[in-house]
Specification:
The structure holds two protein chains of two kinds. Chain A has one domain: Winged helix-like DNA-binding domain superfamily/Winged helix DNA-binding domain (Arc Repressor Mutant, subunit A). Helices cover about 55% and strands about 10% of the residues of chain A. Chain A has a three-stranded antiparallel β-sheet with strand order 1-3-2. In chain A, a hairpin with a 7-residue loop joins β2 and β3. The longest helix of chain A has 27 residues. Chain A is globular and about 60 Å long. Chain A starts with a helix and ends in a 14-residue tail after the last helix. By secondary structure, chain B is an all-alpha fold. Chain B has three domains: about 80 residues, no CATH class; about 190 residues, no CATH class; about 130 residues. Chain B has 18 helices and no strands. In chain B, α1 runs antiparallel to α2 and α6 runs antiparallel to α11. The longest helix of chain B has about 40 residues. The radius of gyration of chain B is 26 Å and the shape is globular. The chains are: A mainly alpha, B mainly alpha. At the A-B interface, α2 and α3 of A face α2 and α4 of B. Chain A: This is PadR family transcriptional regulator. Chain B: Keywords: Membrane, Transmembrane, Transmembrane helix. Chain B: It comes from Glycomyces albidus.
Protein backbone atom coordinates (compact mmCIF):
# COMPACT_ATOMS: atom_id res chain seq x y z
CA UNK A 1 0.00 0.00 0.00
CA UNK A 2 1.29 3.43 -0.90
CA UNK A 3 0.84 6.17 1.68
CA UNK A 4 0.52 9.67 0.26
CA UNK A 5 3.46 12.00 0.69
CA UNK A 6 1.51 14.62 2.63
CA UNK A 7 0.33 12.06 5.12
CA UNK A 8 3.86 10.70 5.60
CA UNK A 9 5.14 14.23 6.19
CA UNK A 10 2.35 15.10 8.64
CA UNK A 11 2.85 11.95 10.70
CA UNK A 12 6.63 12.09 10.72
CA UNK A 13 7.13 14.29 13.77
CA UNK A 14 4.76 12.45 16.15
CA UNK A 15 6.17 9.10 15.02
CA UNK A 16 9.76 10.07 15.75
CA UNK A 17 8.88 11.80 19.02
CA UNK A 18 6.76 8.83 20.04
CA UNK A 19 9.56 6.36 19.40
CA UNK A 20 12.05 8.52 21.25
CA UNK A 21 9.60 8.90 24.16
CA UNK A 22 9.94 5.18 24.77
CA UNK A 23 13.73 5.28 24.82
CA UNK A 24 16.60 7.15 23.21
CA UNK A 25 17.66 5.82 19.86
CA UNK A 26 19.69 6.46 16.73
CA UNK A 27 18.85 7.00 13.07
CA UNK A 28 18.99 3.50 11.67
CA UNK A 29 17.10 2.01 14.63
CA UNK A 30 14.36 4.66 14.35
CA UNK A 31 13.96 3.88 10.67
CA UNK A 32 13.63 0.16 11.38
CA UNK A 33 11.23 0.80 14.22
CA UNK A 34 8.96 2.86 11.97
CA UNK A 35 9.04 0.18 9.31
CA UNK A 36 8.23 -2.55 11.88
CA UNK A 37 5.48 -0.61 13.61
CA UNK A 38 3.73 0.11 10.34
CA UNK A 39 4.11 -3.45 9.12
CA UNK A 40 6.44 -2.25 6.38
CA UNK A 41 3.90 0.18 4.98
CA UNK A 42 5.81 3.28 6.04
CA UNK A 43 9.17 3.23 4.29
CA UNK A 44 11.11 6.35 5.15
CA UNK A 45 14.17 7.51 3.30
CA UNK A 46 17.27 8.84 4.99
CA UNK A 47 16.58 12.11 3.22
CA UNK A 48 13.40 12.39 5.28
CA UNK A 49 14.66 11.11 8.61
CA UNK A 50 17.94 12.91 9.21
CA UNK A 51 16.86 16.40 8.20
CA UNK A 52 13.77 15.85 10.38
CA UNK A 53 15.91 14.81 13.36
CA UNK A 54 18.09 17.84 12.85
CA UNK A 55 15.06 20.10 12.67
CA UNK A 56 13.60 18.62 15.86
CA UNK A 57 16.93 19.20 17.51
CA UNK A 58 16.99 22.81 16.32
CA UNK A 59 13.48 23.28 17.73
CA UNK A 60 14.64 21.81 21.04
CA UNK A 61 12.36 18.76 20.98
CA UNK A 62 15.22 16.30 20.96
CA UNK A 63 18.87 16.44 21.93
CA UNK A 64 21.69 14.47 20.43
CA UNK A 65 24.96 13.13 21.72
CA UNK A 66 27.79 11.21 20.11
CA UNK A 67 28.60 8.08 22.07
CA UNK A 68 30.63 4.96 21.49
CA UNK A 69 28.98 1.84 22.89
CA UNK A 70 31.38 -0.84 24.08
CA UNK A 71 32.95 -2.60 21.15
CA UNK A 72 30.89 -0.52 18.73
CA UNK A 73 31.17 2.44 16.42
CA UNK A 74 30.79 6.07 17.35
CA UNK A 75 27.12 6.80 16.96
CA UNK A 76 24.78 9.76 17.31
CA UNK A 77 21.96 9.11 19.78
CA UNK A 78 18.81 11.17 20.03
CA UNK A 79 16.73 11.61 23.19
CA UNK A 80 13.47 13.47 23.69
CA UNK A 81 13.49 16.64 25.81
CA UNK A 82 10.76 18.08 28.05
CA UNK A 83 9.73 20.43 25.27
CA UNK A 84 9.58 17.39 23.03
CA UNK A 85 7.32 15.59 25.50
CA UNK A 86 4.98 18.57 25.55
CA UNK A 87 4.98 18.75 21.77
CA UNK A 88 4.26 15.04 21.57
CA UNK A 89 1.31 15.41 23.97
CA UNK A 90 0.02 18.30 21.90
CA UNK A 91 0.38 16.38 18.61
CA UNK A 92 -1.31 13.39 20.20
CA UNK A 93 -4.31 15.49 21.08
CA UNK A 94 -4.50 16.85 17.56
CA UNK A 95 -4.13 13.40 16.00
CA UNK A 96 -6.75 12.00 18.37
CA UNK A 97 -9.14 14.72 17.26
CA UNK A 98 -8.47 13.95 13.62
CA UNK A 99 -8.74 10.17 13.97
CA UNK A 100 -11.89 10.45 16.16
CA UNK A 101 -13.53 12.59 13.53
CA UNK A 102 -12.43 10.24 10.79
CA UNK A 103 -13.66 7.16 12.67
CA UNK A 104 -16.99 8.83 13.19
CA UNK A 105 -17.28 9.68 9.53
CA UNK A 106 -16.17 6.21 8.36
CA UNK A 107 -18.92 4.67 10.52
CA UNK A 108 -21.62 6.98 9.20
CA UNK A 109 -20.63 6.43 5.58
CA UNK A 110 -19.94 2.70 5.81
CA UNK A 111 -22.87 1.75 3.60
CA UNK A 112 -21.86 4.31 0.99
CA UNK A 113 -18.16 3.47 1.06
CA UNK A 114 -16.38 1.80 -1.82
CA UNK A 115 -15.42 -1.05 0.52
CA UNK A 116 -18.99 -2.34 0.66
CA UNK A 117 -20.66 -2.10 -2.74
CA UNK A 118 -24.48 -2.00 -2.49
CA UNK A 119 -26.17 -5.32 -3.06
CA UNK A 120 -28.19 -5.33 -6.24
CA UNK A 121 -31.71 -6.48 -5.87
CA UNK A 122 -33.55 -8.09 -8.62
CA UNK B 1 36.50 -12.52 3.98
CA UNK B 2 39.22 -9.94 4.70
CA UNK B 3 39.55 -9.28 0.96
CA UNK B 4 35.94 -8.22 0.56
CA UNK B 5 36.13 -6.33 3.87
CA UNK B 6 38.95 -4.13 2.65
CA UNK B 7 37.02 -3.68 -0.58
CA UNK B 8 33.99 -2.60 1.42
CA UNK B 9 36.13 -0.17 3.43
CA UNK B 10 37.47 1.31 0.20
CA UNK B 11 33.95 1.70 -1.19
CA UNK B 12 32.76 3.38 1.99
CA UNK B 13 35.77 5.70 1.98
CA UNK B 14 34.99 6.68 -1.61
CA UNK B 15 31.35 7.22 -0.74
CA UNK B 16 32.45 9.47 2.14
CA UNK B 17 34.54 11.72 -0.08
CA UNK B 18 31.60 12.12 -2.45
CA UNK B 19 29.29 12.97 0.42
CA UNK B 20 31.73 15.46 1.90
CA UNK B 21 31.65 17.47 -1.32
CA UNK B 22 28.00 18.28 -0.72
CA UNK B 23 27.86 21.72 0.81
CA UNK B 24 24.64 21.11 2.71
CA UNK B 25 25.96 17.99 4.44
CA UNK B 26 28.53 18.65 7.12
CA UNK B 27 31.27 16.27 8.23
CA UNK B 28 29.30 15.23 11.32
CA UNK B 29 26.25 14.44 9.16
CA UNK B 30 28.38 12.26 6.94
CA UNK B 31 29.59 10.40 10.05
CA UNK B 32 25.98 9.85 11.03
CA UNK B 33 25.02 8.64 7.57
CA UNK B 34 28.07 6.40 7.42
CA UNK B 35 27.00 4.73 10.64
CA UNK B 36 23.58 4.23 9.07
CA UNK B 37 25.11 2.79 5.92
CA UNK B 38 27.30 0.35 7.85
CA UNK B 39 24.35 -0.76 9.95
CA UNK B 40 22.33 -1.53 6.87
CA UNK B 41 25.23 -3.28 5.15
CA UNK B 42 25.60 -5.37 8.32
CA UNK B 43 21.91 -6.34 8.31
CA UNK B 44 21.97 -7.21 4.62
CA UNK B 45 25.11 -9.36 4.87
CA UNK B 46 23.53 -11.19 7.82
CA UNK B 47 20.61 -12.05 5.60
CA UNK B 48 23.03 -13.68 3.15
CA UNK B 49 24.27 -11.00 0.75
CA UNK B 50 27.92 -10.50 -0.11
CA UNK B 51 29.42 -7.26 1.28
CA UNK B 52 29.68 -5.60 -2.14
CA UNK B 53 26.07 -6.44 -2.99
CA UNK B 54 24.99 -5.22 0.43
CA UNK B 55 26.89 -1.98 -0.09
CA UNK B 56 25.20 -1.38 -3.45
CA UNK B 57 21.74 -1.94 -2.01
CA UNK B 58 22.43 0.16 1.08
CA UNK B 59 23.63 3.07 -1.04
CA UNK B 60 20.67 2.68 -3.38
CA UNK B 61 18.26 2.71 -0.43
CA UNK B 62 19.81 5.90 0.87
CA UNK B 63 18.48 7.56 -2.21
CA UNK B 64 20.24 9.60 -4.84
CA UNK B 65 22.83 11.92 -3.37
CA UNK B 66 21.30 14.93 -5.06
CA UNK B 67 17.96 14.29 -3.39
CA UNK B 68 19.53 13.53 -0.06
CA UNK B 69 21.61 16.66 -0.21
CA UNK B 70 18.56 18.70 -1.25
CA UNK B 71 16.67 17.50 1.79
CA UNK B 72 19.62 18.39 3.99
CA UNK B 73 19.86 21.76 2.29
CA UNK B 74 16.22 22.46 3.03
CA UNK B 75 16.78 21.90 6.73
CA UNK B 76 20.25 23.47 6.79
CA UNK B 77 19.83 26.30 4.32
CA UNK B 78 22.07 28.34 6.63
CA UNK B 79 25.04 26.21 5.61
CA UNK B 80 24.68 27.20 2.00
CA UNK B 81 25.29 30.85 2.60
CA UNK B 82 27.55 30.35 5.58
CA UNK B 83 30.02 28.49 3.48
CA UNK B 84 30.49 31.70 1.54
CA UNK B 85 31.70 33.36 4.72
CA UNK B 86 32.74 30.51 6.97
CA UNK B 87 33.36 26.80 6.76
CA UNK B 88 30.49 24.55 7.75
CA UNK B 89 32.17 22.64 10.55
CA UNK B 90 31.94 24.42 13.83
CA UNK B 91 34.57 22.78 15.96
CA UNK B 92 35.82 25.20 18.56
CA UNK B 93 39.44 24.65 17.55
CA UNK B 94 38.62 25.26 13.91
CA UNK B 95 36.70 28.38 14.93
CA UNK B 96 39.64 29.75 16.84
CA UNK B 97 41.97 28.96 13.97
CA UNK B 98 39.64 30.71 11.55
CA UNK B 99 39.44 33.79 13.73
CA UNK B 100 43.20 33.80 13.97
CA UNK B 101 43.41 33.54 10.18
CA UNK B 102 41.06 36.49 9.85
CA UNK B 103 43.12 38.60 12.24
CA UNK B 104 46.39 37.67 10.54
CA UNK B 105 44.84 38.50 7.17
CA UNK B 106 43.63 41.91 8.38
CA UNK B 107 47.01 42.76 9.90
CA UNK B 108 48.90 41.69 6.77
CA UNK B 109 46.49 43.52 4.46
CA UNK B 110 47.09 46.63 6.60
CA UNK B 111 50.83 45.99 6.27
CA UNK B 112 50.39 45.88 2.51
CA UNK B 113 48.55 49.20 2.52
CA UNK B 114 51.22 50.71 4.76
CA UNK B 115 54.02 49.37 2.56
CA UNK B 116 52.50 50.93 -0.52
CA UNK B 117 51.81 54.32 1.13
CA UNK B 118 54.82 54.83 3.42
CA UNK B 119 57.17 55.70 0.53
CA UNK B 120 54.83 58.66 -0.16
CA UNK B 121 55.91 60.11 3.21
CA UNK B 122 59.44 60.26 1.83
CA UNK B 123 58.40 62.00 -1.34
CA UNK B 124 57.73 58.93 -3.49
CA UNK B 125 54.10 59.58 -4.40
CA UNK B 126 52.37 56.83 -6.31
CA UNK B 127 51.63 59.05 -9.30
CA UNK B 128 54.97 60.87 -9.67
CA UNK B 129 57.54 58.20 -8.82
CA UNK B 130 56.94 55.63 -11.53
CA UNK B 131 60.53 54.44 -11.50
CA UNK B 132 60.61 53.80 -7.75
CA UNK B 133 57.44 51.73 -7.96
CA UNK B 134 58.64 49.88 -11.05
CA UNK B 135 61.62 48.70 -9.02
CA UNK B 136 59.82 48.00 -5.77
CA UNK B 137 56.17 47.22 -6.44
CA UNK B 138 56.65 43.44 -6.33
CA UNK B 139 58.65 43.76 -3.15
CA UNK B 140 56.12 46.02 -1.44
CA UNK B 141 53.05 43.91 -2.15
CA UNK B 142 54.59 40.45 -1.84
CA UNK B 143 56.45 41.01 1.44
CA UNK B 144 53.16 41.30 3.41
CA UNK B 145 51.95 38.13 1.66
CA UNK B 146 55.11 36.30 2.74
CA UNK B 147 54.56 37.61 6.29
CA UNK B 148 50.98 36.33 6.11
CA UNK B 149 52.04 32.80 5.23
CA UNK B 150 54.99 32.77 7.61
CA UNK B 151 52.56 33.73 10.36
CA UNK B 152 49.77 31.36 9.37
CA UNK B 153 52.09 28.40 8.90
CA UNK B 154 54.06 29.19 12.07
CA UNK B 155 57.22 29.05 10.00
CA UNK B 156 60.32 27.92 11.89
CA UNK B 157 63.26 30.26 12.42
CA UNK B 158 65.45 28.80 9.67
CA UNK B 159 62.76 29.03 6.99
CA UNK B 160 61.72 32.51 8.14
CA UNK B 161 65.34 33.60 7.92
CA UNK B 162 65.68 32.18 4.40
CA UNK B 163 62.53 33.89 3.16
CA UNK B 164 63.51 37.20 4.74
CA UNK B 165 67.06 36.97 3.38
CA UNK B 166 65.79 36.31 -0.16
CA UNK B 167 63.52 39.35 0.06
CA UNK B 168 66.42 41.48 1.27
CA UNK B 169 68.65 40.23 -1.55
CA UNK B 170 65.94 41.13 -4.06
CA UNK B 171 65.44 44.55 -2.49
CA UNK B 172 69.15 45.32 -2.52
CA UNK B 173 69.58 44.12 -6.10
CA UNK B 174 66.82 46.24 -7.64
CA UNK B 175 67.63 49.36 -5.66
CA UNK B 176 71.42 49.26 -5.43
CA UNK B 177 72.14 48.42 -9.08
CA UNK B 178 72.69 51.69 -10.96
CA UNK B 179 70.10 51.06 -13.66
CA UNK B 180 68.67 53.93 -15.70
CA UNK B 181 64.95 54.55 -15.56
CA UNK B 182 64.58 53.71 -19.24
CA UNK B 183 67.09 50.86 -19.48
CA UNK B 184 66.12 47.34 -20.54
CA UNK B 185 67.51 45.99 -17.30
CA UNK B 186 65.11 47.90 -15.10
CA UNK B 187 62.12 46.69 -17.08
CA UNK B 188 63.40 43.11 -16.86
CA UNK B 189 63.90 43.50 -13.12
CA UNK B 190 60.42 44.94 -12.70
CA UNK B 191 58.99 41.84 -14.43
CA UNK B 192 61.24 39.17 -12.96
CA UNK B 193 61.57 40.29 -9.36
CA UNK B 194 57.86 39.70 -8.59
CA UNK B 195 58.12 36.30 -10.31
CA UNK B 196 61.17 35.33 -8.26
CA UNK B 197 59.57 36.62 -5.08
CA UNK B 198 56.39 34.71 -5.83
CA UNK B 199 58.43 31.50 -5.52
CA UNK B 200 59.89 32.82 -2.26
CA UNK B 201 56.30 33.32 -1.09
CA UNK B 202 55.83 29.70 -2.15
CA UNK B 203 58.48 28.64 0.38
CA UNK B 204 56.47 30.38 3.10
CA UNK B 205 53.24 28.90 1.70
CA UNK B 206 54.68 25.40 1.93
CA UNK B 207 55.59 26.07 5.55
CA UNK B 208 59.25 25.61 4.64
CA UNK B 209 58.64 22.17 3.11
CA UNK B 210 59.32 23.40 -0.40
CA UNK B 211 61.01 20.15 -1.37
CA UNK B 212 57.73 18.25 -1.09
CA UNK B 213 56.11 17.62 -4.47
CA UNK B 214 52.69 17.64 -2.84
CA UNK B 215 53.28 21.10 -1.36
CA UNK B 216 54.50 22.38 -4.70
CA UNK B 217 51.37 21.11 -6.39
CA UNK B 218 49.32 22.84 -3.69
CA UNK B 219 51.20 26.04 -4.41
CA UNK B 220 50.48 25.70 -8.14
CA UNK B 221 46.79 25.32 -7.32
CA UNK B 222 46.99 28.20 -4.90
CA UNK B 223 48.57 30.39 -7.58
CA UNK B 224 45.75 29.78 -10.03
CA UNK B 225 43.04 30.25 -7.45
CA UNK B 226 44.71 33.34 -6.04
CA UNK B 227 44.80 34.80 -9.54
CA UNK B 228 41.08 34.13 -10.04
CA UNK B 229 40.20 35.78 -6.74
CA UNK B 230 42.50 38.70 -7.42
CA UNK B 231 40.85 39.31 -10.79
CA UNK B 232 37.39 39.05 -9.22
CA UNK B 233 38.32 41.57 -6.53
CA UNK B 234 39.82 43.76 -9.24
CA UNK B 235 36.56 43.68 -11.20
CA UNK B 236 34.61 44.67 -8.10
CA UNK B 237 37.15 47.40 -7.41
CA UNK B 238 36.70 48.69 -10.96
CA UNK B 239 32.97 49.02 -10.45
CA UNK B 240 33.53 50.78 -7.11
CA UNK B 241 36.01 53.16 -8.75
CA UNK B 242 33.65 54.00 -11.58
CA UNK B 243 30.87 54.78 -9.13
CA UNK B 244 33.18 56.86 -6.95
CA UNK B 245 34.27 58.99 -9.91
CA UNK B 246 30.72 59.34 -11.20
CA UNK B 247 29.04 60.14 -7.91
CA UNK B 248 31.64 62.64 -6.77
CA UNK B 249 31.73 64.13 -10.27
CA UNK B 250 27.97 64.67 -10.04
CA UNK B 251 28.40 66.82 -6.93
CA UNK B 252 31.32 68.70 -8.41
CA UNK B 253 34.13 67.05 -6.39
CA UNK B 254 37.14 65.71 -8.27
CA UNK B 255 37.90 62.27 -6.80
CA UNK B 256 40.68 61.38 -9.22
CA UNK B 257 43.61 62.10 -6.94
CA UNK B 258 41.98 60.13 -4.14
CA UNK B 259 41.44 57.22 -6.49
CA UNK B 260 44.87 57.12 -8.09
CA UNK B 261 46.78 57.87 -4.87
CA UNK B 262 44.70 55.93 -2.36
CA UNK B 263 41.87 53.76 -3.54
CA UNK B 264 43.68 51.87 -6.31
CA UNK B 265 47.14 51.31 -4.81
CA UNK B 266 45.83 50.55 -1.33
CA UNK B 267 43.02 48.39 -2.64
CA UNK B 268 45.34 46.39 -4.88
CA UNK B 269 47.94 45.92 -2.14
CA UNK B 270 45.31 44.74 0.32
CA UNK B 271 43.70 42.54 -2.34
CA UNK B 272 46.96 40.56 -2.71
CA UNK B 273 46.62 39.36 0.89
CA UNK B 274 42.82 39.17 0.92
CA UNK B 275 42.83 36.98 -2.19
CA UNK B 276 45.32 34.62 -0.53
CA UNK B 277 43.13 34.44 2.55
CA UNK B 278 40.04 33.79 0.43
CA UNK B 279 41.75 30.93 -1.39
CA UNK B 280 42.34 29.16 1.91
CA UNK B 281 39.08 30.08 3.59
CA UNK B 282 36.85 29.17 0.65
CA UNK B 283 38.88 26.43 -0.88
CA UNK B 284 35.92 24.40 -2.01
CA UNK B 285 34.20 27.25 -3.83
CA UNK B 286 36.98 27.78 -6.32
CA UNK B 287 37.93 24.15 -6.61
CA UNK B 288 34.86 23.83 -8.74
CA UNK B 289 35.76 26.81 -10.88
CA UNK B 290 39.38 26.31 -11.93
CA UNK B 291 38.89 22.82 -13.40
CA UNK B 292 35.83 24.06 -15.29
CA UNK B 293 37.76 27.01 -16.72
CA UNK B 294 40.55 24.62 -17.67
CA UNK B 295 38.14 22.30 -19.42
CA UNK B 296 36.57 25.18 -21.34
CA UNK B 297 39.78 26.87 -22.39
CA UNK B 298 42.02 23.92 -23.16
CA UNK B 299 40.24 23.15 -26.47
CA UNK B 300 39.94 26.85 -27.29
CA UNK B 301 43.62 27.52 -26.71
CA UNK B 302 44.54 24.38 -28.63
CA UNK B 303 42.50 25.60 -31.61
CA UNK B 304 44.02 29.09 -31.36
CA UNK B 305 47.57 27.79 -31.28
CA UNK B 306 46.97 25.47 -34.22
CA UNK B 307 45.45 28.42 -36.09
CA UNK B 308 48.57 30.50 -35.36
CA UNK B 309 50.78 27.69 -36.67
CA UNK B 310 48.66 27.37 -39.81
CA UNK B 311 48.77 31.14 -40.34
CA UNK B 312 52.56 31.15 -39.98
CA UNK B 313 52.81 28.25 -42.39
CA UNK B 314 50.54 29.84 -44.99
CA UNK B 315 51.95 33.37 -44.87
CA UNK B 316 55.53 32.25 -44.07
CA UNK B 317 55.80 35.40 -41.97
CA UNK B 318 58.48 35.20 -39.30
CA UNK B 319 57.61 36.03 -35.71
CA UNK B 320 58.33 39.63 -34.79
CA UNK B 321 60.68 39.58 -31.81
CA UNK B 322 60.07 43.01 -30.34
CA UNK B 323 59.87 43.12 -26.56
CA UNK B 324 56.09 43.34 -26.35
CA UNK B 325 55.75 40.43 -28.72
CA UNK B 326 58.23 38.33 -26.77
CA UNK B 327 56.43 39.04 -23.54
CA UNK B 328 53.16 38.10 -25.18
CA UNK B 329 54.51 34.81 -26.49
CA UNK B 330 56.06 33.97 -23.13
CA UNK B 331 52.76 34.75 -21.45
CA UNK B 332 50.94 32.58 -23.97
CA UNK B 333 53.27 29.67 -23.29
CA UNK B 334 52.93 30.26 -19.57
CA UNK B 335 49.13 30.15 -19.92
CA UNK B 336 49.41 26.87 -21.82
CA UNK B 337 51.58 25.46 -19.03
CA UNK B 338 49.05 26.77 -16.54
CA UNK B 339 46.25 24.93 -18.33
CA UNK B 340 48.31 21.74 -18.35
CA UNK B 341 49.23 22.13 -14.69
CA UNK B 342 45.64 22.82 -13.71
CA UNK B 343 44.22 19.85 -15.48
CA UNK B 344 46.97 17.73 -13.94
CA UNK B 345 46.16 19.00 -10.48
CA UNK B 346 42.44 18.37 -10.92
CA UNK B 347 42.81 15.06 -12.71
CA UNK B 348 42.14 11.79 -11.02
CA UNK B 349 45.53 10.14 -11.40
CA UNK B 350 43.93 6.71 -11.75
CA UNK B 351 41.53 7.71 -14.56
CA UNK B 352 42.06 6.23 -18.00
CA UNK B 353 43.37 8.52 -20.76
CA UNK B 354 40.50 10.05 -22.72
CA UNK B 355 39.66 12.59 -25.41
CA UNK B 356 40.63 15.43 -23.11
CA UNK B 357 44.16 14.04 -22.85
CA UNK B 358 44.49 14.10 -26.61
CA UNK B 359 43.37 17.72 -26.50
CA UNK B 360 46.03 18.45 -23.92
CA UNK B 361 48.63 16.74 -26.04
CA UNK B 362 47.58 18.82 -29.07
CA UNK B 363 47.87 21.94 -26.94
CA UNK B 364 51.31 21.03 -25.64
CA UNK B 365 52.65 20.03 -29.04
CA UNK B 366 51.40 23.18 -30.77
CA UNK B 367 52.82 25.29 -27.92
CA UNK B 368 56.10 23.44 -28.39
CA UNK B 369 56.15 24.22 -32.12
CA UNK B 370 55.40 27.89 -31.47
CA UNK B 371 58.15 27.95 -28.87
CA UNK B 372 60.59 26.54 -31.43
CA UNK B 373 59.59 29.26 -33.94
CA UNK B 374 60.09 31.94 -31.30
CA UNK B 375 63.47 30.46 -30.38
CA UNK B 376 64.53 30.46 -34.03
CA UNK B 377 63.46 34.11 -34.39
CA UNK B 378 65.33 35.13 -31.23
CA UNK B 379 68.48 33.26 -32.20
CA UNK B 380 68.33 34.91 -35.63
CA UNK B 381 68.17 38.34 -34.03
CA UNK B 382 70.94 37.52 -31.59
CA UNK B 383 73.36 36.33 -34.30
CA UNK B 384 72.58 39.47 -36.26
CA UNK B 385 72.63 42.09 -33.48
CA UNK B 386 74.37 40.42 -30.55
CA UNK B 387 73.11 39.79 -27.03
CA UNK B 388 70.95 42.38 -25.29
CA UNK B 389 69.32 41.97 -21.87
CA UNK B 390 65.86 41.59 -23.44
CA UNK B 391 66.83 38.99 -26.01
CA UNK B 392 68.93 37.01 -23.56
CA UNK B 393 66.11 36.94 -21.03
CA UNK B 394 63.67 35.89 -23.73
CA UNK B 395 66.07 33.23 -25.00
CA UNK B 396 66.47 31.81 -21.51
CA UNK B 397 62.76 31.82 -20.82
CA UNK B 398 61.90 30.11 -24.06
CA UNK B 399 64.58 27.50 -23.49
CA UNK B 400 63.25 26.84 -19.99
CA UNK B 401 59.72 26.49 -21.38
CA UNK B 402 60.97 24.43 -24.32
CA UNK B 403 62.57 21.83 -22.07
CA UNK B 404 59.41 21.59 -19.98
CA UNK B 405 57.02 21.40 -22.93
CA UNK B 406 59.16 18.88 -24.80
CA UNK B 407 59.40 16.52 -21.84
CA UNK B 408 55.71 17.07 -21.02
CA UNK B 409 54.74 16.13 -24.58
CA UNK B 410 56.96 13.05 -24.41
CA UNK B 411 55.45 11.95 -21.11
CA UNK B 412 51.94 12.67 -22.34
CA UNK B 413 52.40 10.43 -25.38
CA UNK B 414 53.65 7.65 -23.14
CA UNK B 415 50.68 8.14 -20.80
CA UNK B 416 48.11 8.10 -23.59
CA UNK B 417 49.71 4.90 -24.92
CA UNK B 418 49.52 3.64 -21.33
CA UNK B 419 53.22 3.06 -21.10
CA UNK B 420 53.61 5.37 -18.12
CA UNK B 421 51.62 6.41 -15.08
CA UNK B 422 50.07 9.84 -14.89
CA UNK B 423 51.84 10.60 -11.62
CA UNK B 424 55.14 10.89 -13.53
CA UNK B 425 53.86 13.99 -15.32
CA UNK B 426 52.88 15.53 -12.02
CA UNK B 427 56.31 14.74 -10.56
CA UNK B 428 57.99 16.25 -13.58
CA UNK B 429 56.03 19.50 -13.32
CA UNK B 430 56.56 19.95 -9.60
CA UNK B 431 60.20 18.93 -9.92
CA UNK B 432 60.72 21.56 -12.62
CA UNK B 433 59.41 24.48 -10.57
CA UNK B 434 62.77 25.53 -9.06
CA UNK B 435 64.08 26.05 -12.60
CA UNK B 436 61.64 28.94 -13.13
CA UNK B 437 62.55 30.41 -9.77
CA UNK B 438 66.26 30.08 -10.52
CA UNK B 439 65.93 31.67 -13.93
CA UNK B 440 63.90 34.61 -12.58
CA UNK B 441 66.55 35.02 -9.89
CA UNK B 442 69.34 35.00 -12.48
CA UNK B 443 67.61 37.70 -14.52
CA UNK B 444 67.19 39.92 -11.46
CA UNK B 445 70.57 39.35 -9.85
CA UNK B 446 73.02 38.48 -12.61
CA UNK B 447 71.71 40.20 -15.73
CA UNK B 448 72.12 43.87 -14.74
CA UNK B 449 75.86 43.54 -13.92
CA UNK B 450 76.41 41.20 -16.90
CA UNK B 451 75.01 43.77 -19.29
CA UNK B 452 76.58 46.74 -17.45
CA UNK B 453 73.18 47.98 -16.28
CA UNK B 454 71.94 48.85 -19.76
Amino acid sequence: MHIAKDLVAASATPLVLGILAEEESYGYAILKEISDRSGGRLEWTEGLLYPLLHRLERLGYVESSWRTPEGGRRRKYYAITEDGQRELAEQRKQWAAVTDALQDIWKATRTLGPLAPPVLEG
Amino acid sequence: MTGSDTELEAQIAEWRTYMLRRKAISGADVDELEDHLRERVGDLTESGLRPDEAFLIAVKRMGRMDELSREFAREHSDRLWKQLVLDPDRDAAADAERRRGLVVMLVCAALGVAAIKIPALFGYGFDESGEFYARNLGLLVLAPLAVYFAWRRRLNAAATGTVAALFVVGAVAVNAYPMDGDSQSIVLSAIHLPLALWFVVGVAYAGGEWRSGQKRMDFIRFTGEWFIYFVLIGLGGGVLTAFTVGVFGAIGVDAEVFISEWLMPCGAAAAVVVAAWLVEAKQSVIENMAPVLTRVFTPLFAVTLVAVLVAIGVTTNAIDVERDMLIMFDLLLAVVLGLVLYSISARDAAAKPGVFDWMQLALVVSALLIDILVLIAILGRITEWGFTPNKSAALGENLVLFVNLAWTAWLYIAIIRRRKRFALLENWQTGYMPVYAAWAGVVVLAFPPLFSFT
